[in-house]
Amino acid sequence: MKVNPPAYKIIRPHGYLLPILLSVPHSGTLFPENLDKDFDQMHLQYPDDTDWFVDQLYDFAPELGITMIVAQYSRYVVDLNRDPTGRPLYEDGRAITQLVPTHTFFGQPLYPQVIPTDEDIQLRKELYFYPYHLQLREELQRLQQTFPDVLLWDAHSIRQSIPTIREDPFPDLILGNQNGCSASSELISTAVTHLSEDKSYDFCENDPFKGGYITRYYGNPQQGIHALQLEMAKSLYMDEETSTYIPDCADKIRAILIKTLTALASQLKIQI
Hints:
This protein is an alpha/beta fold and 272 residues long. Helices cover 30% and strands 16% of the residues. The chain has a seven-stranded mixed beta sheet, sandwiched between helices. It has a two-stranded antiparallel sheet with strand order 8-9. Helix 5 packs antiparallel against helix 7.
């Protein structure tokens, strides 16, 4: 019997270590073989809500000294950035996909017949959700053995326009910090300064995304764990319609990410 791959992969730094853990929870595209028949085949072949290529976009991180944890399974199997109790992230009327989604962001059903039961959801949490978060916690603890304060950077991307969430297109870059609660004001200021520096990109803070479960749950500056979420428009680095990675576009935003993360690492060492 074929064994399914693990829920995540860890990519460790090449020697030098910075006090940053980079989480990529939504770039996974795998589906467990035993679930193939349950999903609508169109969404199985092309899970559109995937944060396409985000792991590739940040593949410079280990050379900088940053540890990466990258999900391998699609968010349609289980969403690693949702509260495991099922509590919604927002209660303002926008479309929100659940811990185990039954519909896409555009309202299309993922299951043509039977939706997952409570037992199915519990099993997916045990096989995919909890292992990712257990490893995430272990990596943060590992960093805290060397550094008194560390940063968890949660990396995401999204289509520029999703009317079910809001009518207007999203800004190019959205920094989420739970209204200043998930990281120190110094780190937030450093991130804002570098992400908003290039005026060819629209930048916004906490609107419309304040940070998902990962940012909210782990961000605890008083305990030395700072968490920031960066949501970016997919169009900054890929063709949304053909799902093609565009290196020239990606290189421009990668330069901003490198500069931002390097500055944050320096700020951590200074302030903390």
